[in-house]
Write a structure and sequence with these properties.
The complex is a heterodimer. By secondary structure, chain A is an alpha/beta fold. Chain A folds into 2 domains: 4-219, 3-Layer(aba) Sandwich (Rossmann fold), CATH 3.40.50; 221-302, Alpha-Beta Plaits (2-Layer Sandwich). Chain A has 10 helices and 14 strands. Chain A has helices at 41-48, 91-101, 107-117, 133-145, 163-178, 190-196, 214-220, 235-243, 265-279, 293-302, and strands spanning 4-13, 16-26, 29-34, 56-61, 64-65, 76-79, 151-155, 182-187, 199-204, 207-213, 226-232, 248-254, 257-262, 283-288. In chain A, a hairpin with a 2-residue loop joins strand 1 and strand 2 (16-26). Chain A is elongated, with a radius of gyration of 23 Å. The two termini of chain A are 35 Å apart. By secondary structure, chain B is an all-alpha fold. Chain B is built from 10 helices and no strands. Chain B has one domain. Chain B starts with a helix and ends in a 9-residue tail after the last helix. The chains are: A alpha/beta, B mainly alpha.
């Protein structure tokens, strides 16, 4: 098992603080590193990958420091956000170069295995310069996986992928995590993180705002109103009835239906059917619209 | 295997770029001028010094070394492909040394050939060989300097040009002390000591030239290795 540990890590540029006193431990499995653009996700990833020195604190990968220590790359793979690849090579050549630089005993077999893993065997003999964005991305992921690393760091891996490629990549990360590897990927898109990983590290303005299972984080924030999307046969009349309920703190009405804010999850969900029955309104849809990461996230940003 | 792989990918990156082709005219110009002067029967004392030193050693050698030396690593830093090479468990010397070798070889070949031809036409095979040998020493020292520059500054070409044009070109003529830190002067001295002719004028002593060339090479190579060890990729800029 190879853990990635950040212990009291800060990074500043002049008097701009990019990362502020972050402590986290990444164990086996998939972890999502979530935050808005400019929150410091890439800075954190680069410190883990040995491409930035922490201004304070320590970053270790399996108990050895990441900075100025090329030996960490024996068990660490990085897929950076920048797309740059040696355009003049084919994917096959690029993978074999990577395998040789890792001093693998059988570069050709390692390249083949990595290309199969990302489903890039069909185009492997075309120059990378001719690839689409998604194909380049998969080629770069293959290169990061060529030495079968224990730790894989990916910066915005789903950018530029079509839905099918995205799904495939999610599957791949999921399988890698399930097989005991430590996978961390950053994203500013909440659905991605939600679908791939249950464990989330949320970074907002350089600080670790939340960490752990996102559903557990959500439950901790019980003082926050729950939001439901409701659609019924008569939204306006239902709104009038709902606002009379003590458990309801607000109702908004628009073309799509009602957005109801409830202070107490239990009493609202028990009250709604009774009201609907009494008023003779049929409820067509009831969605707890904030059980997504989006709401956790925006709540943390606001706090 | 690692050395070969880095050499191969560096060479492909360097020769695959168009800007390297732009350098072909410079060596051809040296040869062309020498052939023309010789063809029209101009005495070597009238054209030898400007073509061999003024153009060959003071312009062609440093400019080609500048393109090659900043190109082998600098272009990969610019486009970000360096990350693929750095995320490998390799001592950084194993990355810097093959790249230095490629830059030196590319420069030495593109410079030694025209210098040899022009030297033969101006004086003798002896001068041709002396210029080619000294040019190769210069190619190594310049390449090490420019390769290190590509790691310490974002504008290695600009800084390299300042060194070549201002330090060596301008100050070297007026302030004699700067010659001790001028690769161009080492090259002239080495060539002149191998094959003494009135065409070349050594301004520093041979031991100084040899020791300083070695110091430039070793020092800047060590600097490049150390800088690459601490290579930082900037975080989100937005």
């Amino acid at each position: 098992m190879t853990d990635v540990v950040l212990d009291g890590v800060s990074k500043w540029y002049g008097n701009v603080v990019a990362v502020n006193d972050v402590t986290m431990t990444l164990g086996p499995g998939v972890t999502g590193l979530l935050g808005p653009n400019g929150a410091g996700k890439t800075t954190v990833l680069h410190m883990m990958a040995g491409f930035l020195a922490p201004s304070r604190g320590a970053v270790t990968v399996g108990d050895v420091p990441a900075w100025r220590n090329p030996s960490v790359y024996e068990r660490l793979g990085l897929v950076s956000e920048r797309e740059a690849v040696h355009d003049f090579l084919t994917a096959r050549e690029f993978l074999e170069v990577s395998a040789r630089l890792h001093k693998l005993p059988d570069p050709s077999a390692a390249a083949q295995r990595a290309l199969e893993l990302v489903e890039m065997t069909d185009a492997q003999n075309r120059r990378i310069g001719t690839y689409s964005k998604g194909m380049r991305q998969r080629t770069r992921v293959a290169a990061a996986l060529v030495h079968d690393p224990q730790v894989l760091l990916l910066d915005e891996p789903f950018n530029g992928m079509d839905p099918r490629q995205r799904l495939h990549m999610m599957d791949l990360l999921h399988n890698l995590g399930a097989s005991g590897r430590t996978i961390l990927f950053s994203s500013h898109i909440l659905e991605e993180v939600e679908q791939v990983s249950g464990t989330v590290q949320v970074i907002v303005a350089g600080r670790l705002a939340a960490s752990g299972d996102y559903r557990a984080i959500r439950r901790l924030m019980s003082n926050r109103p729950h939001v439901f999307a409701v659609h019924s046969t008569d939204d306006r009349r239902l709104a009038v009835a709902l606002i009379g309920q003590p458990s309801v703190t607000g109702v908004e009405i628009d073309k799509a239906g009602l957005t109801v804010r409830a202070g107490d999850y239990g009493s609202f969900t028990r009250a709604l059917p009774k009201i609907a029955l009494a008023e003779g309104i049929r409820v067509r849809r009831l969605l707890p619209s904030d059980e997504s990461l989006e709401s956790v996230f925006s709540y943390l940003v606001e706090a | 295997m690692v050395t070969q792989t880095i050499t191969w990918i560096t060479a492909r990156g360097l020769f695959g770029r168009r800007r390297f082709l732009l350098l072909l005219p410079l060596p051809l110009l040296v040869i062309g001028l020498a052939v023309l002067s010789r063809g029209f029967g101009v005495a070597p004392e009238h054209w030898g010094e400007p073509v061999l030193v003024g153009l060959g050693l003071a312009v062609v050698l440093p400019v080609i070394a500048l393109i090659a030396g900043t190109g082998v690593l600098g272009s990969e830093i610019d486009d970000g492909t360096i990350v693929h090479i750095l995320t490998k468990p390799l001592p950084r010397s194993q990355i810097v040394l093959p790249k230095l070798a490629v830059a030196t070889a590319a420069t030495a070949v593109s410079v030694a050939v025209p210098l040899y031809v022009a030297g033969v036409l101006a004086d003798s095979v002896g001068l041709g060989l002396a210029l080619a040998a000294a040019g190769t020493v210069g190619a190594l020292a310049y390449s090490a300097l420019f390769l290190a520059l590509s790691l310490v500054t974002r504008r290695p070409v600009l800084l390299g040009l300042v060194y070549v044009l201002v330090w060596e070109g301008l100050l070297g003529n007026f302030v004699s002390g700067t010659r001790v830190l001028s690769i161009q002067q080492y090259v002239i001295t080495i060539a002149d000591k191998i094959a003494p002719t009135p065409l070349l004028e050594a301004k520093v002593s041979l031991p100084v030239a040899l020791v300083m060339s070695a110091l430039f090479t070793v020092g800047f190579t060590a600097l490049a290795i150390d800088r690459l060890r601490s290579f930082s990729v900037a975080g989100e800029t937005s």
